[in-house]
Design a protein that fits this description.
Layout (H helix, E strand, L loop, with lengths): L1 E2 L19 E2 L2 E2 L16 E3 L4 E4 L6 E3 L7 E5 L2 E8 L2 E11 L2 E7 L1 E2 L2 E3 L5 E3 L2 E6 L2 E8 L2 E8 L5 H9 L3 H13 L9 H17 E2 L9 E2 L8 E3 H11 L4 H13 L10 E3 L4 E3 L7 H9 L5 H21 L26 E2 L1 H19 L12 H13 L11 E4 L2 E4 L3 H4 L11 H10 L25 H14 L4 H22 L4 E2 L3 H18 L5 H11 L4 H22 L7 H13 L3 H14 L5 H13 L3 H14 L4 H13 L3 H15 L4 H15 L21
Parallel strand pairs: 2-25
Antiparallel strand pairs: 1-11, 3-4, 4-5, 5-6, 6-12, 7-8, 8-9, 9-10, 10-16, 13-14, 14-15, 15-16, 17-18, 19-20, 20-21, 22-23, 23-24
């Protein structure tokens, strides 16, 4: 029977949300706040083949939906919206999960849903029923609404249950759920595809959240790949990092739950099921203190810190003993599932990355304790461990010939393990003097290879693959952030990751019955997006401050030229005398330059940048960029181009210098060269920086007409890429 209703006057709410093709394996649940009627996962609802909704892994029956060609599908963790717009005819299937095993939906201009296979369907009292094992799936329809219940065969008062469901105002219930989605924060300046993928990942993450149970106290995430419900601590830790920037309460709740799993010995299991059984004897990855620091630093709640700090100290004491049970002073991986790189495991293997992780845990606990004045006594017990680990990093694991931490030990035998683990100690404050610069230089020159570290591999990603080294990548980014203050290398890895996400998403949209993204990878997408949003977008654009300052002073273009000339003269005089003496250390000059630049003190910026260029030419890239930006601000494209040319030669794929060079050439009326720069920028960064590329395309259009830049061209300085290499 075909059912039609009067067309809604309002716009389809699903149109404002991201849509995809049917995602096979997508799970539908009720969320942590909803009522759970069944304790086991056999009632889990999931999308099977196109148009089929299944119940549990052993059930033979399924709910079949009337699908149409070119349907658009909005995947929610607690519902599904299928719609199709054909001229003036709109057809939809909307359904939501009311309770465990209960779907409530509405159809417009579609055939009624039905239970399959047909030979198993029993019909009675306007109900369609399939029995399988000790359970039943029952479907009832009333006008344009339908309800499907999966429950035990002996469920009492099933008719009353249907009456209760149909009394719920479906439109109001659905609208309430959609409003929260529309209001969800999406990182700024992302492409359409990236935003859609981000939305999908949030839904996946939300769908994994479960309410407190008898054995698992507090909010938890069902993140096992199997159908059995369980907490995988390692995956949850990645999820916590992803939730922290946008949903801090969720992150705090998940972290609290993990710490509640702690035993009297201080140990925390790596995996535990809903019955309280430990299902993995391996230790969790030693990053719990690091994750706790990331969460607690957001608001530094003294009560929450006071509650967590003793637990974190007990855990740290346990994990240090776990990896060094005989207290010989060298920490070793205990079994094959514990190392970050599984393929390198050998019995009694001691590597620099483990020591680095443990040292980082101690340092994280120290910083957390510093927020509580009365908690410093907790740290005394870790003094010897910290000293010993630092000594091991400097003496046992440091490879003097390669200038990295590539030495490893197994049963007194020495190995050399290149790649990821050799660089992870960069995340620790105790990094060997001089090591940072050497390793960063090797990364910039592409000397450090291996799939985890190689730039191009970060774009080759399959988010449905659960074997990706997500934690490795997260820790590597963290390590780089410690030693790359300008975040230029971090930018490269984040940019390539985002490009990989987009490539994956676009490719998946062309596939029917595409596989669902894994939870760990969904968390990684969210984390990368937020890191990019935090580090590469400026909330209060620099240009706004500049323009406001100039307007208040009523400075016009002639005044700017005079000001620039005077500034250059003064700087020349000051620099002449300053350079007669020994130069200040590079670190001091860089700090002074960064502070001056951020505070719009252009005189000091140029002065310190000039000294860096004179005395430390190999470290002068950022100084040249700042000089170029200031020159462009004061309408001196010749000087800007002079500064940008060596940057473009050294960093040919860096977006900021590329765009700035195009603008400088444009102002100099070197139209052909400028056109080539604009084209290259738009081609490379169209998906990653859509808003900036839109401006660049407009500038390119003006260029082709041999027109000058618009008066407001300086708005591009509102984007951080113009201030980063």
């Amino acid at each position: 029977m075909k059912i039609g209703v009067k067309k809604r006057s309002d716009q389809n709410p699903a149109q404002s949300l991201s849509h995809q093709q049917w995602i096979e394996g997508w799970k539908l649940g009720i969320g942590p706040a909803a009522h759970r009627t069944h304790p086991d996962s056999s009632y889990g609802i999931y999308l099977a083949e196109n148009g089929l909704i299944g119940y549990g892994e052993k059930e033979k029956g399924a709910l079949s939906l009337d699908m149409e060609l070119n349907d658009r599908i909005v995947h929610l963790f607690d519902g599904l919206i299928i719609y199709n717009e054909k001229k003036r005819r709109r057809s939809t299937i909307e359904l939501i999960v009311i309770e465990d095993g209960i779907l409530y939906g509405k159809i417009i201009n579609r055939n009624n849903p039905k239970l399959i296979p047909a030979e198993m369907v029993n019909t009675s009292h306007q109900m369609f029923q399939i029995e399988s094992f000790d359970r039943q799936t029952v479907l009832q329809q009333r006008d344009c609404y339908f309800c499907c219940i999966h429950t035990h065969l002996d469920h009492p008062n099933l008719s009353e249950k249907f009456d209760h469901i149909f009394d719920i105002d479906f439109e109001v219930e659905l609208e309430n759920r959609l409003v929260s989605r529309v209001q969800q924060r999406v990182p700024a300046s992302q492409s359409k595809d990236q935003n859609e993928l981000h939305f999908l990942c949030i839904e996946l993450m939300q769908g994994s959240l479960q309410p407190s149970s008898e054995r698992i106290q507090g909010l938890w995430s069902n993140n096992r790949t199997t159908h059995n419900e369980a907490v995988d601590v390692n995956t949850t830790l990645i999820q916590i990092l992803a939730w922290a920037p946008s949903e801090l309460e969720i992150a705090e709740s998940l972290l609290t739950t993990i710490l509640r799993l702690q035993t009297s010995s201080g140990s925390i299991p790596s995996a535990i099921d809903t019955k309280g059984l430990i299902i993995d004897l391996a230790a969790p990855k030693p990053i719990i203190c690091m994750v706790a620091e990331e969460v607690l630093s957001k608001r530094k709640d003294p009560d929450l810190i006071a509650t967590m700090l003793p637990k974190l100290a007990r855990y740290l004491s346990w994990i240090l003993s776990h990896f060094d049970p005989t207290r010989r002073g060298i920490h070793r991986w205990r079994n094959q599932s514990e190392p970050l790189e599984k393929d390198i495991y050998e019995t009694e293997l001691a590597t620099a990355d483990l020591s680095a992780l443990l040292l980082n845990e101690i340092e994280s606990l120290e910083r957390i304790a510093s927020w509580q004045q009365q908690s410093t006594s907790l740290l005394k017990q870790f003094y010897d461990d910290k000293t010993r680990i630092i000594s091991n990093l400097e003496n046992l694991f440091w490879n003097e010939s390669k200038k990295d931490y590539s030495i490893a030990w197994a049963r007194e035998k020495k190995y050399v393990l290149d790649g990821y683990g050799a660089l992870l100690p960069m995340m620790c404050k105790s990094l060997k003097k001089g090591a940072k610069e050497v390793m960063i230089e090797r990364l910039q020159q592409g000397e450090l290879t291996g799939k985890t570290l190689h730039h191009t591999s970060w774009r080759e990603i399959d988010l449905s693959n659960d074997e990706l080294p997500i934690l490795q990548k997260i820790l590597f980014i963290k390590a780089l952030a410690h030693v790359d203050p300008g975040n230029s290398i971090v930018y490269d890895y984040l940019r390539l990751s985002m490009s990989g996400f987009i490539d994956f998403y676009i490719a998946k949209q062309k596939q029917v019955n595409q596989k669902s993204i894994t939870l760990a990878n969904a968390a990684y997408v969210m984390l990368v997006n937020y890191q990019y949003d935090q580090h590469y977008q400026i909330a209060n654009p620099l240009i706004n401050s500049i323009v406001r300052s100039l307007k208040r002073a009523k400075i016009d273009r002639v005044d700017l030229s005079i000001f620039a000339s005077v500034a250059i003269l003064l700087i020349g005089v000051r620099t002449f005398y300053a350079l007669q003496e020994s130069p200040q250390p590079l670190s001091i000059l860089q700090t002074e330059m960064h502070i001056a630049y951020n505070e719009l003190d252009f005189l000091t910026t140029i002065e310190t940048a000039t000294q860096i260029m004179e005395h430390y030419p190999e470290e002068a890239s950022r100084a040249r960029l700042y000089q170029a930006n200031i020159a462009l601000q004061f309408d001196n494209p010749e000087v800007a181009l002079q500064m940008l040319t060596p940057l473009r030669e050294r960093f040919p794929d860096s977006p900021g210098p590329m765009l700035l060079e195009a603008i400088s050439l444009h102002q100099l009326q070197r139209f052909e060269d400028a056109s080539q720069c604009y084209f290259e920028f738009c081609y490379l960064f169209d998906e990653i920086f859509p808003k900036i590329v839109e401006d660049a395309k407009f500038f390119h259009f003006l260029l082709q007409e041999q027109l000058a830049l618009p008066n407001n061209w300086r708005v591009i300085y509102g984007h951080r890429i113009c201030h980063e290499i």
